[in-house]
Amino acid sequence: MDSIDSSILPLLNFLLAQAQVDVDMSSIKLEVMDDGGMGSHKFHNTNIDSKLGREASSCSFIDTDGIAVSATLNLDQYGSLFELDLFKGDFSKLQKWPLASELKVT
To answer: Can you name the residues that pair with 21 across neighbouring β-strands?
Structure first.
C-alpha cells in the first residue's frame, strides 16, 4: 500500500471534483492493480466486504505515445473510494500521467 504519487494528483483531483467527492488526500492509500501497466489503482478501504458499487466520474486523455486513455473513478457499494480504473486503447503501458489541462470530460 502506497501513499499517493504526486504525478497522479491532477487526474485524481479532476475525477474527485467531477464526482463531488470530498476526501482527505493525506489519508488515501493506493495499491497498483495488475492491468499490464495501464495505470489502474485500488484504494485501500476499511470496509472489509468492499466491492464495486458504481462509477462516480470519468475522463479521457491522450498518452505521450498518441494512444487514448480513459480513466474512471469507481466507488464501492457504500460510496467510498474503490478504484481508479485506467484503460489504454491498445492495452500498452501508461507512458505519463496527464496534466490537468490534458483531461477531457467523457
So the answer is: none
